Amino acid sequence: MKKLLSLALLATALLLAGCDKLSSPPAFKNTDLTGLDYAKGFSLTDHTGQPRTLADFRGKLVVLFFGYTQCPDVCPTTMAEMAAVMKELGPSSNDVQVLFVTLDPERDTQEVLAHYVPAFDKRFIGLRGTPEQTAATAKEFKVFVSKVPGSTPDNYTVDHTAGSYVFDKEGRIRLFVRHGGGPAPIVHDLRQLL
């Protein structure tokens, strides 16, 4: 009888241990922002001229990156990295939406974004706003932006935060992905959220 009771207690303990593992939060490779009270949304126009908000993408994971098309390094490598992530995710990539928000609306017109953003993956969407909308969106997402003068008024660069935000399927902020970590940690974390 004691043996049967010990086995029953052991089985119960194992079941409860399994429940703990199921209820614990996922272990992310990138910075977990779950529960933070910023980066709640945007109101911008996509590269086809459609008005867009974060709510338009409910039901998908959203990876949101701020940059500009004339960026010499960070922006194209981030976009190429996200294209590799989508490829690695395979069919699950249909549940992920990558958004590129320009921090240079003066040069990044709708037409420029329409050529640049989908060149990395036809599903990627470019977003832009007026200079005022862009500044407000950057502030909402706590993105650092600084225009750096060049040799001519049109030849400038834009220093900016180099990272992407990830939102879950309900539109809640979950992660910050730092630039340069490679596709593997992003794939790992997106699979956790899918």
Task: Describe it.
- This protein has 194 residues and is of the alpha+beta class.
- Helices cover 34% and strands 24% of the residues.
- It has 5 helices and 10 strands.
- The protein has helices at residues 2-23, 74-89, 110-116, 131-140, 183-193; strands at 31-32, 43-46, 51-53, 61-67, 96-102, 125-128, 145-148, 157-160, 163-167, 173-178.
- Strands 1-10-9-4-5-6-2-3 form an 8-stranded mixed beta sheet.
- Helix 2 (74-89) packs across helix 5.
- The N and C termini lie far apart (46 Å).
- The model is unreliable at 1-21 (pLDDT under 50).
What are the secondary-structure elements, in order, as H or E?
HEEEEHEHEHEEEEH
- What is the first-to-last residue Cα distance? 46 Å
Helix content: 25-40%
Q: What gyration radius follows from the Cα positions, in whole Å?
A: 21 Å
Please report the total strand number as a whole number. Answer: 10
* Lateral strand order in the biggest sheet: 1-10-9-4-5-6-2-3
* Range of strand content: 15-25%
Please work out how many helical segments DSSP would assign. Answer: 5
Please state the average pLDDT score. 89
Indicate the low-confidence ranges by residue numbers: 1-21
Form type: globular
Quick gist of this model?
It contains five helices and ten strands, in the order αββββαβαβαββββα. The protein is of the alpha+beta class and 194 residues long. The chain has an eight-stranded mixed β-sheet with strand order 1-10-9-4-5-6-2-3.
